[in-house]
């Protein structure tokens, strides 16, 4: 059976910071952020957007009435969970008005969990060919003001419908994966911000990539020449490039040029959003699908997923006929166009405006958040969400 990504939607919060201005405010050469790190803009979530609202807003764009009936599994990958017990997937299930006869679960393994969701979704569709699975990756990446990680923050979500006979990307069954218990990046339960061993995390990201790529070649006999493009988990856009260049010489000059050009296309959206952790690889895939003019149906795309701690996976998909027809390019152009740039001062204010951590109730000002779905407050320890368009 052919199983894969049938639909893909993306959402970013309504604010962003210009990386050149952030660099100037931090006394850093702007080229470090725009070239050395490879980021132009950083998406910023107001207090009225959390992992649940980002996810629901992304899914809202792609779910139609038939999907609402057929989705019987919601798999929500996030490391920005809002509750130790209740899964974020249950809130999203309700906000979207999905068929109640469904399973809804949150998955965690840093930036890897949406990929775990996709692989589990494939198994579910194989057993239940007429159902559909909603897989979401949504996160708010926070390292703290003035930290080395600050330039690699971001916020957003990617939602995908996985089904049989997919319209976008057929997922093949030859993925390779690797786990090792390391401390490159983590966020203890008591901390709003992530802890990170930056250089070590970069090294491990590349090491894991080399391991799964080598295993993939050994297992399948395929080479770089089999691929139209490789997409990477993108904590910042220079990172994927650092991994890609370790294997580029395995290809002819022509293959190298093609992969380099398509890598640039695959990071256009990420350059404007920053790290969205679980959704980052899929934002890169979306960027490639929507922005390229050269990749044809039938061509193969490689995807490298990495989640600190750490798990890495390399898997592949085949582009489906007329895939461009089923994308929402205009909607995403509008999403970027409608975002508001905020000054560095305003960013710091928004960043520090967090929810009460002592159990107090709060009513939030929603006038500054035009998103269809937002958090309106907390009452009796319960988050109150509003779907403006239901
Ligand atoms: P840093 O130490 O401040 O930066 O933080 P740096 O000194 O290494 O400089 C960065 C790059 O800019 C270097 O290039 C410099 O040469 C260059 P590179 O050597 O790396 O190619 N540079 C300049 N370029 C042009 N003009 C200039 C200039 N100055 C310097 N004037 C670091 C960088 C990434 C370590 C930091 O931002 C950080 O800790 N980020 C968070 C961790 C991270 O993103 N790790 C990525 C791999 S782990 C991962 O992907 C998992 C993750 O998504 C979490 C999860 O799984 O949940 C993070």
Automatic annotation (TrEMBL):
It is an enzyme of class 2 (transferase). Gene3D superfamilies: 3.40.47.10. Residues 178-248, 256-353 form the Hydroxymethylglutaryl-coenzyme A synthase C-terminal domain. Its EC number is 2.3.3.10. Residues 2-164 form the Hydroxymethylglutaryl-coenzyme A synthase N-terminal domain. Keywords: Acyltransferase, Transferase. One of its GO terms (molecular function) is hydroxymethylglutaryl-CoA synthase activity. InterPro entries: HMG_CoA_synt_C_dom, HMG_CoA_synth_N, HMG_CoA_synthase_prok, Thiolase-like. Belongs to the thiolase-like superfamily. HMG-CoA synthase family. This is Hydroxymethylglutaryl-CoA synthase. It comes from Oceanobacillus luteolus. The lineage of its organism: Bacteria, Bacillati, Bacillota, Bacilli, Bacillales.
């Amino acid at each position: 059976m052919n199983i894969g990504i049938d639909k893909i939607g993306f959402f970013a919060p309504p604010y962003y910071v210009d990386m050149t201005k952030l660099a100037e405010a931090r006394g850093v050469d702007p080229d470090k952020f725009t070239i050395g790190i490879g980021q132009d803009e950083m998406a910023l979530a107001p207090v009225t957007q959390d992992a649940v609202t980002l996810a629901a807003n992304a899914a809202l764009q792609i779910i139609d009435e038939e999907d609402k009936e057929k989705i019987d599994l919601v798999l929500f990958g996030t490391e920005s969970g809002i509750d130790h017990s209740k899964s974020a997937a249950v809130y999203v299930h309700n906000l979207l008005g999905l068929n109640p006869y469904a399973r809804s679960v949150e998955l965690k393994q840093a930036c890897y969990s949406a990929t775990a969701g996709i692989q589990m979704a494939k198994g579910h569709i194989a057993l239940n060919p007429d159902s559909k699975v909603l897989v979401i990756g949504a996160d708010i990446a926070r390292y703290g003001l003035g930290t080395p990680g600050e330039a690699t923050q971001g916020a957003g979500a990617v939602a995908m419908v996985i089904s049989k006979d997919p319209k976008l990307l057929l997922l093949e069954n030859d993925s390779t994966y690797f786990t090792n218990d390391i401390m490159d990046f983590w966020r203890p339960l008591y901390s709003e911000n992530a802890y990170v061993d930056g250089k070590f995390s970069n090294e491990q990201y590349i090491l894991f990539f080399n391991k799964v790529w080598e295993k993939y070649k050994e297992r399948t006999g395929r080479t770089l020449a089999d691929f139209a493009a490789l997409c990477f988990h993108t904590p910042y856009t220079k990172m994927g490039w650092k991994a890609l260049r370790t294997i580029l010489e395995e290809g002819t000059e022509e293959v190298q040029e093609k992969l380099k050009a398509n890598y640039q296309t695959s990071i256009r959206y990420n350059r404007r959003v920053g790290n969205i952790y679980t959704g980052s690889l899929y934002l890169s895939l979306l960027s490639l699908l929507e922005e390229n003019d050269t990749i044809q149906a039938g061509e193969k795309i490689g995807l490298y997923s990495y989640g600190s701690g750490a798990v890495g996976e390399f898997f592949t998909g085949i582009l489906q006929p007329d895939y461009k027809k089923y994308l929402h390019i205009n909607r995403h152009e509008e999403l970027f166009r409608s975002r508001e740039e905020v000054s560095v001062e305003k960013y710091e204010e928004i960043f520090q405006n967090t929810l009460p951590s002592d159990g107090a109730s709060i009513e939030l000002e929603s006038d500054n958040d035009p998103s269809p779905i937002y958090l309106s407050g907390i009452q009796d320890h319960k988050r109150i969400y509003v779907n403006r368009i239901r």
